[in-house]
Amino acid sequence: MPHIKLPEGLQGIRGALAFRPATAKPLNELAEVLLHAPNSLTAGERELIATYVSYLNDCYFCQTVHGAIAAAHLNDDEELVRRVKADFQYADISKKLKALLVIAGKVQRGGKQVTAADVDEARKTGATDIEIHDTVLIAAAFCMFNRYVDGLATWQPHDEALYRERAKRTAREGYVATSRDYLPQHEAAKQGA
Amino acid sequence: MPHIALPPDLPGISAGFAFRPETAKPMRELAHILLFESNSLTSGERELIATYVSTLNDCYFCAASHGAAAACHLDNDATVKQVQTSFSQAPISAKLKHLLTIAGKVQQGGKNVTAEDVAAARAEGATDLEIHDTVLIAAAFCMYNRYVDGLGTWQPRDESMYAQMGAHLAREGYKTPSLRPAAT
Lengths: 193, 184
Description:
- The structure holds two protein chains of two kinds.
- Chain A has helices at residues 13-19, 21-36, 43-56, 60-73, 78-87, 95-109, 116-124, 129-151, 160-173, 175-178, 185-192.
- Chain A has eleven helices and no strands.
- Chain A starts with 12 loop residues before the first helix and ends with a helix.
- In chain A, helix 1 packs across helix 2, helix 3 (43-56) packs antiparallel against helix 4 and helix 3 crosses helix 8 (129-151).
- Chain B is mainly alpha-helical.
- In chain B, helix 1 packs across helix 2 (21-36), helix 3 (43-56) packs across helix 8 (128-150) and helix 6 (94-108) packs across helix 8.
């Protein structure tokens, strides 16, 4: 049971976001810029970083949702998503993404864990400054989202089919557009403005 | 030295914000709502929560700047230092002590917060919204702290700079930069 009285019938972060639409707005906008807006890292790659960090933080809801969105971006390759979580060094992903996942894993433990050598390694595989920046910030942001979802003990039904279906729409339309599904209407209208 | 080519002369998160304005906007707005906009928890109380979590995460820049903002709101520097070292002895309300306990659990991981922690806060008068905001402030500083340290930002040991930032944050909030690049 959630620690506070959240709106019923909304899973994971949706219940928390609907409880407090004022903070939902910047939270969704941050996810939109980091994961959905055009970027030299594909949306699939960025969702894999989010999934990996959520897995390290042991957040069921976030790793399942973002894993499903990653798969939706990556030709429904759920096996690849599982492999990235289990041992990304052996997954069929670029050397650059592997180096960025190393950085993301360090950020998950603490910002100071990231070393100049980690960053040099990523740069050797072609990572740009903005890609390194976004990797650090995606990993940091999921250390927030994961704690928000679990810290309120939100409702997280174990129903992969539900998340898989919804993920397709989030992959297509992004985080701000789909927030109209669960945010109170007048707030949702403001978000579109 | 920062890990990437951040604008020079800007310390801590200011450099990350200037490097990537698209992500700075929602990050500033989130801090503004959580710490500055009117709330049944005072800005001083919320800045203490932010300072405490930043101290646990060992983020010098965030602990110094939010500690300065808290000191400005509370007009009391000693209380801030006491909250950082041992909040149970600090001259703050029993409610805030219970909220700081929850914030400390969130810093370790969301699942560490127990129903007992929440019941104890509620017994001292904490509302659902105050508990929500405490969890989100603590979670958000687990982001800001990692962002600031994960980029290897410049964090000068300069008390007067943080005092100046804290005064701006306490007066204006988070929507506009609290420091501008040094005039040349």
